[in-house]
């Protein structure tokens, strides 16, 4: 079973291209580290009602280890079934794809069979391969499903990918978007340069995954020279682990940022918001400890809101780092207006029903 971008529902393609908020869906586990289907359903309902324009499932925030314990298909199937049962609103459903070409193609086949619209392709398993091998891998997976490129930061398993790679990747016909998440401005510019060099800026939509610069990424025009003339591209939306928490606030923030860009006037308070959101991310993602607690930190915010029972991860060694809970206390106190605690409290019982 294969899927090409030309056969995507028009409303899905339009939402993807316009730019939307796509939270990376966490994995709910019980105290025995087994899949908590009840809490997983509540999370999906939360994201839908919070205004997310799509869901990314089977990605880093969902824990790549779901593949090792036989949960890849069940978790993807759960998100699709729960989203469809909860809303008729079109959602861009993105499946994480990982492993070597055989594994990634098999996962793409699974995702297409479940109704997913695109695959977010991790290249972590191909570390050390040259650009030719990486592009051959991407082409093999793109033959099965529309692709979203994934520039994953090296601190959590990614690799350096230069502008030449991104130019060749963007030239692949079934590529629809790129999530830039190197947490590095120079590397982010390489993505822009590659897309422009491939003349793919009208086909490949840019999504920020730079959790350390979310607001400025979404406000900044990026100008690249091509054939002696400037070409300007922009991030249109976000596909973010950070947006797995305080999602209602994130969706509304994106609408405001998009409105400011469309109006051609960026208020100073929006520029100042960048540092505040980044401050929150430092606590959520455990920057002080090289991102060791990045998944557990998001879990902890959801636990405090009542959406999760605990912060358990598949790897028992993953958890909050020393001092991370205190940092979460601080940002929740200092940036309370960026949270959506009241929204969650008002709807939690319904989501858990």
TrEMBL record:
<dbReference type="InterPro" id="IPR002220">
    <property type="entry name" value="DapA-like"/>
</dbReference>
<dbReference type="Pfam" id="PF00701">
    <property type="entry name" value="DHDPS"/>
</dbReference>
<dbReference type="InterPro" id="IPR013785">
    <property type="entry name" value="Aldolase_TIM"/>
</dbReference>
<protein>
    <submittedName>
        <fullName>Dihydrodipicolinate synthase family protein</fullName>
    </submittedName>
</protein>
<keyword id="KW-0456">Lyase</keyword>
